[in-house]
Write a structure and sequence with these properties.
The complex is a heterodimer of chains A (about 575) and B (about 350). With about 575 residues, chain A is α/β, with parallel strands linked by helices. Chain A contains 22 helices and 20 strands. In chain A, helix 5 (about 125-135) crosses helix 6 (about 145-160), helix 15 (about 405-415) runs parallel beside helix 17 (about 450-460) and helix 21 packs antiparallel against helix 22 (about 555-570). In chain A, about 50% of the residues are buried. Chain B has a two-stranded antiparallel ribbon with strand order 1-2. The radius of gyration of chain B is 24 Å and the shape is globular. Chain B has helices at about 15-20, 20-30, 30-60, 95-130, 130-145, 150-160, 170-200, 200-210, 215-225, 230-250, 265-275, 280-305, 335; strands at about 65-70, 70. Chain B is mainly alpha-helical and about 350 residues long. The chains are: A alpha/beta (about 575), B mainly alpha (about 350). At the A-B interface, strand 1, strand 2, helix 2, strand 4 and helix 15 of A face helix 8, helix 9 and helix 13 of B.
């Protein structure tokens, strides 16, 4: 298996050999609530050197399909049909034979690199483990520990880890997130499998790191002719990498087409809706055509001056500065978009404004209250003017209370209405977020993710707050749901006129909602300005990099942007 | 990963109250061997409870009865005739003592659990939620008590409470209080750990953001979510309570045969009989202890397994199931509804 793949086979031009064939695959799970047909009838084919993207929203069966390719389904699953890898049917294989095929013929790249690597072994050991596990099989010679390590070093070099001879002895925690994902890919490549299944390989990574990993995957295909099955929900990633796209919905294939064709002229209604829902940077901007900051005459709700927030370090280590000298203002009626990657301090700022984190330096005035000397007793009266929408709608409701009780909670605490008044107000609120009033009697888990986030918005609005903080309110939602929630959010903001701090890592989402955008990088506010101007002609280096790294859902435009970002990043 | 996560088993709060009760919902969820174990445990426990409740009616004699109209009971009579399980060296009827013993056991379980559950839960909630130095002190105290041998504590309690007199009250309280002291840290730890986990949940933070007071957050938002594991600890602790009571009685700190029937005491008195081939005085109280402990442990362990979606067994998916069944959020299928214990 090794020789033919070590030599570059064509420059990424899909060959004629079929690497993977899936034929009428059906997967059923036994769950507490009866059988769930996760995959109903899926047939697809993958040629050598091709990148096939399987896209779909959560529950579409894309991950289950991917796991079936490696025979990784849990015991509760029953599958029928055929999954052929180089002519061998995976489904009917014995565990021992399956083990031989995994790693050698097909390998997997997981979503979260930090959990895919074992923290107590060096990365070299982990890569070599796969090599040694397969040595001596099928009459091949055994691989010595030394040789395995050399091959691990080779694999690390292939994925662009600098100084692999030295770093092969590092432990996973000594690598950054993006490097860890490179190591995972190196482990997948160690035996030169013809096929890699990548399950959301960039979802847990920041945009700038995502761009690097996508670049790496593209190189692999180009240099080694590896076929890739890419599972993702991110249409930008699809546009960037895929040759062919399969759209799945509720366990079925809705549409299959070459990437360019799919984005240009989707045939199915579902695909069209899906593509229309994907936020596209530079389209539908809230600040289109603005030349100066709006709402400046209004009351200033939040004023930060050299705001510093530190988290105490462990014994002997200095405190960690999560927010470092940030200054901004937020006025009534304005939507302030705060953008940044993970660890940039954006959530910390939002939580500090809501009084969930303490500030340690500078000044943060919320509705005129200085948060530096926050006392719960004196701040409590102001809380009714602050609404907060959390990231995960599933976790932000008490599972033991009905939606109605949850929405009424702020009123019960501050205004103590009678039961009839509360019920009436809850009904109004639910209506204003486009949910039927009857949902008040339901429990949180009986609602879908999007419905829960609407209810969460209703709760935040229940006391007509002057200030709303939305911390990644749509990042746990599917794109089509996200589009609807964003639209609702925009309407409600216009209707109620509250000032809003909208925190997100997604530039395109922020651009849809906010007129004024601030970019955070490592705790510092590196740039702020009118949304369309920040996105269109970024001034700061980091902002430029961030925007260049963001893949757009359009293969042609993305190819052009990729060239630009290469030039920018000096690749 | 997103699509294959095991669905979190949320008991549907809308289904009828009876079906949501801890044990009932567990029976409905279980299949195969797990269901067999759970039901066996429930049957053993039910027999124990019924015997305790009905002891005055079904026991042939009183626990301290030494004679009836026909005169004194013979000593050490083998099973058979008027005394189906024989009599002891002192002339007590073994069957009656075993039956009356269930009452003592049940009393100890109830007192021990009632005394410890309130203190444990309140301390756990407060300590976990408030944290800081209060939490640290309580954890250290709990750990210290945990390290203390419970039997030694029970002996001290027995002496303090009854001054060596072994009345029913003194014996039961001694056992119950010593168990309480050991159980409070258990409830405390479980509830504290849950509280600390829940404290970081967004729904608690959202309550903080709207300005809910600490008391309101603890009682309304944390309490109900933190106490889900209590039925499990309860059943496991109950069996431990019985073992401690029996051990106390066996060591002679139990209850005099004239004040109540207690299996540990009977076992200890039967010790001398075994060498002379008199087996019935020891075997039946011993079996009673095994019966109750086995029953309670089976229930507890089954609930433990069923609460964990990874350990819970499920019926295999039908290979040829009707394709009409809707996807992930489907209503319960017909096959899980048919629960016939």
């Amino acid at each position: 298996m090794t020789e033919n793949l070590d030599t570059p086979s064509g420059n990424g031009a899909p060959g004629t050999k079929t690497v993977l064939g899936i034929d009428h695959l059906e997967v059923t799970f036994a769950t507490d609530s009866g059988d769930v047909h996760a995959v109903k009838d899926v047939s697809l084919e993958l040629k050598a050197g091709e990148v096939l993207a399987i896209v779909g929203e959560s529950g579409s069966g894309k991950t289950v399909t991917a796991k079936t390719i490696l025979g990784l389904l849990p015991e509760t699953a029953t599958s029928s049909g055929a999954v052929l890898i180089n002519g061998t049917n995976i489904i009917s294989l014995s565990p021992a034979r399956l083990r031989q095929i995994r790693g050698r013929d097909v390998a997997m790249v997981f979503q979260e690199p930090s959990t895919a690597l074992n923290p107590v072994f060096t990365v070299g050991w982990q890569i070599a483990e796969g090599i040694r596990a397969h040595s001596g099989q099928g009459g091949g010679k055994r691989v010595s520990a030394k040789e395995a390590k050399e091959r691990a070093i080779d694999a690390l070099r292939k994925v662009g880890i600098p100084d692999p001879e030295h770093r092969v002895n590092y432990y996973p925690h000594q690598f950054s997130g993006g490097q860890k994902q490179r190591v995972v890919i190196a482990a997948a490549l160690a035996l030169n499998p013809g096929l890699i299944v990548a399950d959301e390989p960039t979802t847990a990574l920041d945009v700038t790191v995502q761009a690097e990993i996508l670049e790496l995957l593209r190189d692999l295909r180009g240099q080694y002719g590896t076929s890739i099955v890419l599972i993702t929900h991110n249409m930008g990633v699809v546009a960037d990498l895929a040759d062919r796209v399969v759209v799945m919905y509720r366990g079925d294939i809705v549409e299959e087409a070459p990437a360019r064709k799919l984005f240009a002229e989707p045939r199915q209604e579902y695909t069209r809706q899906l593509l229309a829902a994907v936020p596209h940077l530079g389209r539908n901007s809230a600040s289109e055509g603005l030349t100066e900051r709006r709402h400046q005459g209004g009351e200033v709700l939040v004023e930060a001056k050299d705001l510093t927030i530190e988290y105490p370090g462990r014994l002997g280590t200095p405190a960690f500065k999560a927010v470092d000298g940030v200054s901004f203002t937020l006025s009534r009626g304005e939507v302030f978009g705060l953008v940044g990657e993970s660890g940039s301090g954006k959530t910390t700022i939002g939580r500090a404004i809501a009084g969930l984190n303490r500030t340690t330096g500078g000044s943060l005035k919320v509705l005129g209250y200085e948060m530096l000397d926050l006392r719960e007793r004196t701040f409590k009266p102001l809380r009714k003017d602050i609404g907060f929408v959390f990231q995960d709608p599933a976790a932000s409701f008490n599972p033991q209370l009905t939606i109605g009780e949850c929405i009424a909670e702020p009123m019960v605490i501050h205004t103590r209405p009678s039961e009839a008044q509360a019920r009436k107000r809850v009904g109004e609120l639910l209506e204003s977020v486009q949910l039927p009033a009857s949902y008040a009697g339901r429990y949180p888990h009986e609602l879908s993710g999007g419905q829960r986030q609407r209810a969460s918005l209703a709760r935040a609005l229940s006391l007509n707050p002057r200030l709303l903080i939305a911390d990644e309110p749509t990042s746990a939602l599917d794109v089509s749901v996200q589009a609807k929630v964003l639209e609702l959010f925009r309407d409600i903001q216009e209707e109620f006129g509250f000032g809003c701090l909208f925190i997100s890592h997604d530039l395109a989402v922020v651009d849809i909602l906010s007129t004024w955008v601030g970019v955070l990088y490592k705790g510092k506010l590196v740039e702020q300005g009118i949304g369309s101007q920040v996105m269109g002609s970024p001034q700061h280096d980091y902002t430029r990099r961030l925007i260049a790294s963001l893949p757009v859902p359009d293969p042609d435009e993305q190819a052009r942007r990729r060239e630009e970002s290469r030039a920018l990043l000096g690749l | 990963m997103s699509t294959t996560e095991a669905p979190v088993p949320v008991a549907n709060p809308r289904s009828s109250f009876f079906l949501r009760l801890p044990v009932v919902s567990h029976v409905r969820q279980s299949v195969g061997l797990q269901r067999g174990m759970l039901i066996m445990g429930l049957v053993l426990t039910a027999v124990f409870l019924l015997t305790a409740l009905l002891a005055p009616f079904i026991a042939p004699f009183g626990f301290a009865q030494l004679s009836d109209g026909d005169g004194n009971f013979p000593a050490q009579q083998p099973p058979g005739g008027k005394h189906p399980l024989g009599t002891t060296v002192g002339g007590y009827d073994v069957l009656s003592r075993v039956m009356w013993g269930t009452q003592t056991a049940l009393l100890v379980i109830i007192i021990a659990v009632v005394l410890s559950i309130f203190a444990g839960v309140i301390l756990g909630l407060v300590s976990g939620y408030i944290g800081g130095w209060l939490d640290r002190i309580l954890v250290v105290v709990a750990d210290a008590i945990y390290a203390f041998p419970s039997l030694l504590l029970a002996i001290v309690m027995a002496i303090v409470i009854s001054g060596g007199q072994s009345s029913l009250f003194g014996g039961v309280m001694a056992a119950a209080i010593s168990i309480t002291v050991v159980f409070i840290p258990q409830y405390f730890r479980v509830i504290r750990a849950e509280t600390i986990r829940l404290k970081a949940e967004p729904f608690v933070e959202s309550a903080k953001v709207v300005g809910a007071s600490n008391l309101r957050i603890i009682t309304r938002h944390i309490y109900r979510n933190a106490t889900r594991t209590l039925p499990l600890i309860f059943t496991l602790n109950a069996s431990e309570a019985i073992l401690t009571l029996a051990a106390l009685g066996f060591l002679g700190f139990g209850i005099e045969p004239s004040s109540a029937s207690e299996w540990g005491f009977d076992l200890s008195k039967a010790l001398a009989d075994t060498t002379s081939g008199i087996w019935w005085t020891g075997v039946f109280p011993g079996l009673a202890i095994v019966w109750v402990v086995l029953g309670l442990t089976l229930v507890g362990e089954s609930i433990n397994d069923l609460n964990d979606p990874r350990l819970r067994g499920r019926k295999r998916a039908n290979r040829k199931a009707p394709a009409a069944s809707p996807a992930a959020n489907a209503a319960p299928g017909p096959d899980t509804e048919s629960s016939n214990p």
